[in-house]
Prior knowledge:
The chain is an alpha/beta fold.
Amino acid sequence: MFRHSILYFLYRKLKYAYLNDRSPLVASIKVTQRCNLRCAHCTWVNRITTDMPLERWKDIIDDTYRRGCYIIFVEGGEPTLRDDLTEIIKYIKSVGMLCVLFTNGTRGLPDCDLDAVWISIDGSHSSHDITRGEGTHEKIMETLENNPDNNTFSMTTLSKTNAGDIEELCKELSATSLNGLIFNFMYPYKGAEGKNALSTEERIKCAQQILKLKKDYPKIASSDSYLRAVGQPDKSCYPWLLLMVTADAKITHGCTVEPAEERDCNQCDMMCGLESSLGFELKRDSVNFWKHINIDTPLNVDLVPDWALRLINGRKI
Ligand code: SF4
Ligand code: SF4
């Protein structure tokens, strides 16, 4: 399976460097926008209430493969609300792509072969429940207890609500069966969704705290390169690496902010764009971050000398 290999990543890297190929690498598909929760910050839930049938999603999955993607994130809404979720996941795997389920974790996990599971956990017990609803943290803990062998990661989006809670969160989650802890920063959208977003100075402070906490909590999976880039004006982002499909089949190829409003990269530290871009720039620790998704690694990037990485980069990107 060439696309499961880091060699595919390097092949795409060379195609960009020498042929200016800007095809997407990572797709996220909102297989439903229905959700069992009503999180304070959410702008997606129930914007679309009808789910497209399985056959339509199979066509879309084929299309993402043809465009060059090697990973699909299956998300929502809450994807586990779909009765045919396992069929969608099996289809993604059958065409040769890696599959990550992105869930709120309150409804258990599907019984099928996933490369990784990302569960939204927005703080320690109390701050998570403020954002996501009373009792939701406990349900996630049940899901983790019942599924100890999945390749499961927490995804924490930091905002004013949970920024003071980082160490407590690391302590709590490190004691669970989670394989790793991933951090993200809320984007300051102009509407209700962004009002809790942190200022640049606050984001930098949080990122530096997480960098320090890595010594005591080795499950923290976010790369040092990402955390050091947070809040910096000159950080790299290649938004064309990403493709998003909404529940009514609208495709966005590029920055996920732009369909909603004009983007402000100086205020953006979202991990989806930055961790992908840093990996694409062959920052060693970001490449290693993406390896958690069962990517075959015949090539250990740590053994590749700097001159070879410069050659693969081809030109300044
Ligand atoms: S779990 Fe996700 S989709 Fe559901 S309400 Fe919360 S943020 Fe929105
Ligand atoms: S707003 Fe964020 S995701 Fe969009 S191009 Fe800028 S840095 Fe990338």
